[in-house]
Design brief:
The complex is a heterodimer of chains A (about 270) and B (about 270). Chain A is an alpha/beta fold and about 270 residues long. Chain A is built from 9 helices and 10 strands. In chain A, the strands form 2 sheets. In chain A, strands 6-7-8-3-9-10 form a 6-stranded mixed β-sheet, sandwiched between helices. In chain A, helix 4 runs antiparallel to helix 5. With about 270 residues, chain B is mainly alpha-helical. The two termini of chain B are about 30 Å apart. In chain B, about 75% of the residues lie in helices and about 0% in strands. Chain B is globular, with a radius of gyration of 23 Å. At the A-B interface, strand 6 and helix 3 of A face helix 8 and helix 9 of B. The structure holds adenosine-5'-triphosphate and magnesium ion (MG). The site of adenosine-5'-triphosphate (ATP) has 15 residues of chain A, from helix 1.
Chain lengths: ~270, ~270
């Protein structure tokens, strides 16, 4: 599996709500990913993490040009607009309440784009496999309302993985879950990533999560976001509690926390993200 | 525990038995009041026939032994037939138009000034126009019912589509759906329960218009039956006819609610 994803001098500006001028959210961000590893993206609230992630996925917000300037390159080719190399998983699992677990995961294959690429038989085989892989066999006929939060997030993850994406984009996927379920989901992601390696970009605000999962940890500064820090973690996964308490890990944690605190001096940083 | 059984607690769940008991009691009370008024001759029998007279009329209409026929059954079949025809037409026209209006603000901007005003317009006043355009036959009656119902259905379908959270559209787009696919595969299915509510309301509207539709030159039908009875001052038959229409409308409503719950069990679980 080879894949390369590059952001080149990305600037993103959004019009102010009052219509007067623009707010610069991202300021000349350049990042390159060329390993099928897990990359963690951290940054203060509202700094533009989701904006960047959606840009990577080729998803454009309505009525705004993204990026304002700069390029997103996949395998060295500039990509403008939607592409199907990436799949996304969000904090609020977007499972359809009217569809069963099976139908939720099968859902993308009802679209022209995927119908052309994947035969029905192949799609059904994949759905079955991925449901087993995320630990949801024999739940095919249940509705999302009959599942727990963790199980719902497994469905959302399955729906992304069933497309066999080369790039998996995750926006705080586990942050709405209880601590214990979140740990289970992290372990699941590690396992799935070993089975089906792909380039993961994972947005989180949880430093521990970043250190548990990441091959690489990128920290952004506050608005306008710039790359404030970018380092690798070589410790193999799964990472033990002993490693988490090691000087190396503790230093990394402090390094990130310092940046995040420096970015948000005092209070009044409350922002609502849609 | 506080007094949660108080009258003014909107959240007290009522057992089905309690609910039915109270409702039945209210109907019974009204019947008693009606019976008392008739027995004491408070209102003249040509204005308010006694309930037992209405019951007699009902029995006669249901089975006329002398002529070996059921006026009520024939009339009901005719009226139901007209409503069924108008129902199919209303759905076939109303749902696609409402869906398109709900899916596209542009289409909505074009069509809503042409459709929304009719919701508050006196559709009954259109009857003479219907007669001029479609004559006095069956098509006029069906078209009248259709117009009366579709002007309710279209805005309700549109509103149902617009009430679906944008996130469903966006997440379908994220997965690679074309804009129309996102509407068809994500927004429309999510709007279905509310669209079904619209269909139920539109059908109720048709039951209220059936007597008007059958006002002009109907040989058969519940509306015609009532007309006819009125012409002969058979007040008991007028009442029986009205009660039958109310009952049929209620049965239709309950049946459609039942089907809706079966089709969209997930709606209440959200
Ligand atoms: N479509 C849009 N139009 C205008 N402003 C937007 C739009 N999308 C995002 N913003 C603004 O851009 C900024 C960055 O938003 P973004 O969602 O990328 O932040 P984030 O880092 O993901 O935040 P959080 O940690 O809260 O999820 C916010 O101030 C937000 O209000
Ligand atoms: Mg975000």
């Amino acid at each position: 599996m080879s894949v390369s994803l590059e952001l080149k001098d990305i600037v993103q500006e959004y019009p102010r709500p009052d219509g007067k001028g623009v707010t610069r959210v991202c300021d000349k961000i350049s990042l390159k990913f060329d390993q099928p590893g897990i990359n963690m993206l951290l940054g203060p609230s509202g700094c533009g993490k989701s904006t960047i992630l959606r840009m990577m996925g080729g998803v454009r917000p309505i009525g705004v040009r993204t990026p304002t300037t700069g390029t997103v390159l996949i395998d060295g080719k500039a990509c403008d607009g939607a592409h199907d190399d990436a799949a996304m998983v969000f904090q609020r699992y977007a499972n359809r309440p009217d569809l069963t677990v099976w139908d939720n995961v099968y859902f993308p294959f009802r679209m022209k784009l995927w119908k052309k690429k994947v035969s029905k038989a192949e799609a059904e085989k994949r759905v079955k496999e991925v449901l087993a892989a995320v630990g949801l066999p024999d739940k095919d006929d249940l509705l999302p309302a009959q599942l727990s939060g963790g199980q719902n997030q497994r469905v959302a993850l399955a729906r992304a993985l069933v497309l066999r994406p080369r790039i998996l984009l995750m926006d705080e996927p586990f942050s709405a879950l209880d601590a214990q379920i979140r740990q289970e989901m992290q372990q699941l992601l590690v396992k799935l990533h070993e089975m089906q390696p792909c380039l993961v970009v994972f947005v989180t605000h949880d430093v521990t999560e970043a250190l548990t999962l990441g091959d690489r940890v990128i920290t952004l500064s506050t608005q306008p976001a710039r790359v404030a820090d970018d380092f690798q973690i070589t410790e193999p996964r799964p990472r033990s509690g002993i490693w988490a308490r090691s000087t190396e890990a503790v230093k990394m944690e402090e390094r990130i926390l310092n940046l995040l605190h420096a970015a948000s001096p005092g209070m009044g940083q409350v922002r609502v993200t849609v | 525990m506080t007094d949660d059984r108080s009258l003014w607690n909107p959240y007290t769940p009522l057992s089905p038995g309690q609910r039915r008991g109270l409702g039945f009691g209210a109907v019974l009370f009204l019947l008693l009041l009606w019976g008392a008024a008739a027995a004491l001759a408070l209102v003249g029998p040509n204005k308010l026939p006694a309930p037992w007279k209405v019951a007699e009329a009902f029995v006669y209409l249901a089975w006329d032994a002398e002529n070996q026929r059921s006026l009520l059954l024939t009339a009901t079949l005719w009226s139901v037939g007209r409503i069924l025809a108008a129902f199919v037409l209303t759905l076939a026209v109303g749902i696609p138009i409402g869906v398109m209006m709900g899916a596209s603000p542009k289409i909505n901007a074009v069509l809503s000034p042409l459709i929304d005003p009719f919701r508050s317009a006196p559709v009954v006043a259109l009857l003479p126009i219907m007669v001029m355009w479609f004559g006095i036959g069956e098509s006029m009656k069906v078209v009248f019912l259709f117009i009366g119902a579709v002007v309710y259905l279209i805005p309700m379908v549109r509103d149902a589509m617009q009430a679906v959270p944008q996130s469903h559209w966006i997440s379908a787009r994220d997965l690679g759906a074309t804009p129309w696919e996102a509407v068809r595969l994500a927004v429309l299915p999510m709007a279905m329960p509310r669209i079904a509510d619209g269909v139920i309301v539109a059908t109720s509207v048709m039951w209220t218009y059936i007597t008007v539709a059958e006002y002009v030159n109907a040989r058969e039908g519940l509306g015609q039956l009532i007309q006819n009875a009125r012409r002969f001052s058979a007040m008991d038959q007028v009442f029986a006819g009205i009660i039958v229409i109310i009952a049929l409308a209620l049965i239709t409503y309950q049946l459609m609610q039942f089907i809706k719950r079966r089709l969209y069990p997930w709606e209440t679980q959200q």
